[in-house]
Amino acid sequence: INAPLLYLQNNCIMTSKYNIITFLPVNLFEQFQEVANTYFLFLLILQLIPQISSLPWFTTIVPLVLVLSITAVKDATDDYFRHKSDNQVNNRQSQVLINGKEKWMDVRVGDIIKLENNQFVAADLLLLSSSEPHGLCYIETAELDGETNMKVRQSLAVTSELGEPGNLAQFDGEVVCELPNNKLDRFCGALHWRECKYTLTNNNMLLRGCVLRNTESCYGLVIFAGPDTKLMQNSGRTKFKRTSIDHLMNTLVLWIFGFLVCMGVILAIGNAVWEREVGSLFQSYLPWDPPVDNFLFSAFLSFWSYVIILNTVVPISLYVSVEVIRLGHSYFINWDRRMFCNRSNTAAEARSTTLNEELGQVEYIFSDKTGTLTQNIMTFNKCSINGHQVEKSHRFDSQEPHILAQPLDFSAWNPLADRDFCFYDVSLLEAVKMREPAVHEFFRVLSLCHTVMRELVYKAQSPDEGALVTAARNFGFVFRSRTPSTITTQELGKEVTYTLLAILDFNNIRKRMSVIVRTPEGHICLYCKGADTVLFDRLHSCNHDLMNITSDHLNEFAGDGLRTLALAYRDLSEEQWEEWAERYHGADKAIDYREDRLAAAYEEIEQDMMLLGATAIEDKLQEGIAETITVLSLANIKIWVLTGDKQETAVNIGYSSKMLTDDMTEVFIMNGYTVQSVREDLRYSPFICLSVQAPVHSSLRFLVFFASFGGLFTTVFSHDPLSASLFSILISFLKESRSSWQAHALEADMEQEFLETACACRTVICCRVTPLQKAMVVELIRRHKNAVTLAIGDGANDVSMIKTAHIGVGISGQEGIQAVLASDYSFSQFRFLQRLLLVHGRWSYLRMCRFLCYFFYKNFAFTMVHFWFGFFCGFSAQTVYDQYFITLYNIVYTSLPVLAMGIFDQDVSDQRSLQYPKLYEPGQLNLLFNKREFFICIAQGIYTSVVLFFVPYGALWQATQSNGVPLADYQTFAVTTATALVIVVSVQISLDTGYWTAINHFFVWGSLGTYFTILFTMHSSILFNIFPKQFHFLGKASTLSQPLVWLTIALATVICIAPVLAFRFLKLDLKPQLSDTKKQWKAGGHARRSMGGASGPGGSGLGHLGRGGSRRSGYAFAHQEGFGELITSGKNMRLSSLALATFAARHSSSWIDTLRKKKHSPPAGDSSPAPSVAAPVSNSSSLIGPLETAAEQRGQTNADPQVGVADVAQVETGQCSLVVQVNTICKTLLTKYQVH
């Protein structure tokens, strides 16, 4: 196929990381990248040297092997499922022309395979022939680029004639093509056959991941297979992901090791001094052990002995506990019933157990659009006909409002109606039956002006177009069939055939399409549909009043996030048509500037049209999308949409999902073609100019209210780097263009400007991106921003960015399971992301941080006692505690309480976590565990060790028992110190635990009981008589019967805990955290919403996200140019029909209607409530909570402009409130900053 390739690549794919041979070395290599594992391996080697080992070797090797084994089993399990999914794909059956049925993995380059309708394409194929005329076939590329519209592919004319399998079997051509690459929109090659050369383009290729649609069968030649296919080239490599806490832990372990070395050096120096000054005096009866022969060598061995003794500052049990806690958090995600989808019977799944706490630190979300935010279901929702608005969703009977209205039954009078079409407003159907001319003409446009190419079961290049034709069908105007020169419809039961004179096709510049037809009566009409922004400019002047009314309707439609189109027509005389047709055919046959000449001809005829009305199509979002995006935005999470869809569709989804709102200052669209234009777009963006012209102090944040007769709208100027901007940016990557926007914007010399521009905006939407470009954008943020990224998608085109982001989330949707298989977490609805991050992610981060802080504290408190003891034992590397206490301290005495806290602890409930998204911000700012918090923990641990050593030392120095026997000895001191240590750390974890369960109580008090049980058992005469060499502390537990010992323990406990209590009470009173405030309010029974609170179960904390009356016109015919030229050429005419099933369109009500429902009750004694004007609140403002009072009074507006003067806005920060009059702050700010 290509000269450099000397082998035939098979079609086997592998997304797994290991195999049987490579698992052990590769997995161990990955695990020993953890500094702690290497550290413990080093300690194990030291403990195997008898001269310096103070502890048995098994105290290190057993937990180390345990940690490595647990991690290896977990990694092997994850990889097993990857192997399982790979085998499922590789073992699919394909029909190879020569060998019959074979597995996908056995298909090789050069094979000819047969595809049937609705089958996935197994490899990158060159289309040879098809059951359709002229070698055409139709494919869906959702797994490649997220687009669900039909695309056309056509074989070469010379191969389309082969047809039969027998002829194809004799095919002996040679294909020379480019090397495997990841460019989905380009293919360059040539077919050499029968001494002729035929050029091959992307239009001749069927790529792996596509689905054959609407075509009975086709044959293709395998060009690229397996990892060489463009889909796999775009999928990226599986990366080993670690959390930011893991990276921080590596740094801290190095610091601790350095601290450990310093302590060892200090004690070794002390040993050298002591041995030279004091130890030399005892050489006659206490000589050095061989091979020690001088004090320097003694100090050297003492150094390593202390390294072993003090290594418990980072015990291996820490990493065992971390893995157990993460596993518990993963099970909580799997068991969460509120993330279970009943419709698809799919539960949330944590496919990775190592990233849970990272879910609580996400700052950037990169989301696919198709199938992730939307359901890919278009429904005819509303329309405006001749100035009259008609809505689909009149769900309640007009006569009896409390009774639900029934959907209209179209089949009773229209046997060809689509039974899945749902509409409630009977007035429109009555108008059709009464033969209203404007209504008939409206639906006639919908039935004629399109490029649908199927009968009854419509398959359009755009789902919008299919929804409009289906609507016309149900109201009696049924598209039946077409030929290159005719369109046949059935109008109210009567078959009508129109002569198709011309199709003025859609493209992204024209933003409209038209057809010119001749009616059976001989009249010539032009029917047009398109964006109102371009169509209104081409209307006859007599349409002015109707245009104003329709514009108001369009504003309302756009306010609901619907995709709108305007409809118009024009009657043409025979002379007009003939004159224009001559110019049109001349432009069509032109060799130079054909596209420009056709556009000029189209522009000429599409003038002086008569307006009919407008349509509104709902691109059904998934349930709870807008609410989820709003709440995540309030949590200071930036959401970027990376979609392969076209620009206009992305804008409409942005508005319907509330990512784009009218409180934004501006929406900037960047789609430059050249390097210079892209650089100018980035460098001279209007919002950058604004920030230069009106500089504001970085800590200033203020609100400006503008009063109007229609209410109040709010503009938020925020120059706080932690708060979101009011700008949004729309970036078109223009996949069709050779010089794409992305190709320039992501270049090394321009990527920093692109990053600064995009990050200055609250919303970023990137259109027309390839899978690899998605990964490049994610990688750009990862590389330049110290922020955690999350990528979410549902198709194979999202796999690359899912693997690139810190966290990958797969949606188990309609585009296969490739995204799920590559993800770290998966569920079935985008709305579950809100709970995954704000509840499970925040809790996991909180628990892990508290666990680590406490773990370092308790181990420094435990270990540093050895350091202080070294100054009193001649620096002999003797331990304070007996070896069994040292072994059991981290395994038995203190392990279970901290595990319970790490698994079950929470500061606020899950409802409060969702209700107050600002609670999420500490994780983004990494406030709960960082280097500062680490030093505070070890400082507290060192302080505790000082108290635990010197208080018992001073109390027992000259103490005696009641019988006069001295109380002070090594064993008594060891038992007293150990008991005080266990009690102090148990009290400390009781203070640290914020959420007590029965398990917490059992572990905390049970660990104390276990300590005393083991203490008395090990100090008993029974064990001493059996193992006299192992148990030396015979009867020393009896020292606990001495009152002085208990007074010493109590004193040490009070001295350790009292400063902690005092500090926490002062901090709670002077500088409380938001979670502390919420817990106080909950305890006091307050029902307040503040600091960015979102809607909770009890009501709404969100301001109205109005659209301010602006019009957003949406249209979506095709992602490239339409099927017009294909239709008029006649190449699409079928030899046979193929019946396909249609999907039901379900109605979903807007979430904002639910959020708006408030209970209003006027104050007692007031005969009439005072009118007030409510200010819609930006969803980017962190001050949204305090503005709720105004929001609750929405609907009580007064046209009097003086009413708003008395209104006040309360701005709350922490415990402080500031109330200012609106008119005063407006005048001040407008004067100072010249805000226009």
UniProtKB/TrEMBL annotation:
Active-site residues from the entry: D368 (4-aspartylphosphate intermediate)
Record-level Gene Ontology MF annotations: ATP binding; ATP hydrolysis activity; magnesium ion binding; phosphatidylcholine flippase activity
The EC number(s) this enzyme carries: 7.6.2.1
Pfam families tied to this protein: Cation_ATPase (PF13246), PhoLip_ATPase_C (PF16212), PhoLip_ATPase_N (PF16209)
Keyword Metal-binding (UniProt): yes
Coiled coil (UniProt feature): none
Subcellular location(s) of the protein: Endomembrane system; Membrane
Binding-site list for ATP: D368, K369, T370, E465, F506, K529, R563, T643, G644, D645, R768, K774, N797, D798
Membrane topology annotation: Multi-pass membrane protein
Chain positions covered by the region annotation Disordered: 1079-1105, 1154-1181
Record keyword DNA repair present: no
Binding site for Mg(2+): D368, T370, D794, D798
Protein name: Phospholipid-transporting ATPase
GN (gene name): ATP8B4
